[in-house]
Design brief:
By secondary structure, the protein is α/β, with parallel strands linked by helices. The relative contact order is 0.14. The chain has nine helices and twelve strands. The chain is globular, with a radius of gyration of 18 Å. The protein has one domain: Rossmann fold (3-Layer(aba) Sandwich), CATH 3.40.50.150. The strands form two sheets. It has an eight-stranded mixed β-sheet with strand order 7-6-5-8-9-11-10-12, with helices on both faces.
């Protein structure tokens, strides 16, 4: 079972459409709060410092975002969680225009009430399925998005329809010529799902890198991998040094390493895609 916290029944909570319970709970290991859904930590937010990215995979996303061209961004986020990355972009790139698509109105209400967004932030939240929501964004956004972040989980798994060539084509259609797609993928031993996701994304966007903790990238334990992709060469000059610096040494796989990583992996399409693997329940126990 997932981890339990003292006073859990007293923490702010909301029941989601599928019956799961979302809670905003004080973080046990860092300043701020976590958004927890049925024992699975979804997000960490530090209201006093929105540049504090406590979860390692989110910090890796932040490292990529920091390498994009200076100035405000036009960004789309699939999956709200605690709105950690939108807060980070607002803090580091004032004036950015951001759209968030989230399935669960109750989750959005819980987060906005207990972890309010900065005043004046241009962050619009739309309720609905992430894939369907892409088609409902303003037509003027097509070809103008600097950053699209896909970090969607139902419980601890990414739904299959958000893992396919068709889905990524719809996402890529929004990107500016040098726009970047960031995808959070969770996988374990053997990395069969992650390898297929990288192959799927590269079917759509030719420039791909993968960022992950070394043991995760080797398939030795369950964890998160960040896939960054673009139609243009990615700005990765500083990433290897940043990743190696820790707190847990990580690696950037690119070029020939990506070719080797996806060897034999078949891109996922709507007819044969699967949800991401479900982690062991003990993974989130403390």
């Amino acid at each position: 079972m997932g981890r339990q916290r003292r006073g859990e029944a007293e923490t702010p909570s909301a029941r989601l459409s599928d019956g799961r319970i979302a809670r905003v709970v004080p973080s046990e290991y860092a300043n701020g709060y976590e958004v927890d859904v049925d024992g699975t930590p979804q997000s960490h937010v530090d209201p006093s410092d929105p540049t504090h990215l406590h979860f390692e995979y989110v910090a890796r996303m932040g490292a990529v975002i920091d390498q994009l061209s200076d100035g405000p961004l036009t960004a789309v986020h699939l999956g709200a969680g605690g709105l950690t990355i939108p807060r980070y972009i607002e803090a580091t790139r004032p004036g950015s225009r951001q759209q968030v698509i989230e399935l669960e109105q109750a989750l959005v209400d819980l987060v906005r009430e207990n972890l309010p967004l900065p005043r004046g932030a241009s962050i619009r939240i739309r309720i609905g399925d992430a894939r369907e929501g892409l088609s409902r964004l303003p037509a003027a956004m097509a070809g103008s998005v600097d950053l699209l972040v896909s970090d969607v989980y139902s419980g601890a798994q990414t739904p299959a329809h958000l893992t396919t060539v068709e889905f990524y084509r719809a996402a890529a259609a929004l990107l500016a010529p040098a726009g970047v797609l960031l995808v959070n993928v969770a996988d374990g031993s053997g990395l069969a799902f992650a390898r297929r996701q990288v192959a799927t994304i590269r079917e759509v966007l030719p420039e791909v890198v993968v960022l992950a903790e070394v043991q995760v990238l080797k398939g030795r334990r369950f964890g998160n991998l960040v896939i960054a992709a673009s139609a243009a060469p990615l700005p990765t000059d500083w990433l290897p040094r940043l990743m190696a610096a820790g707190p847990h040494p990580a690696k950037v796989a690119q070029g020939a390493e990506i070719d080797a990583f996806i060897q034999g992996a078949r891109p996922a399409v709507d007819g044969d895609a699967t949800d991401s693997p479900k982690p062991s329940a003990v993974l989130f126990e403390r």
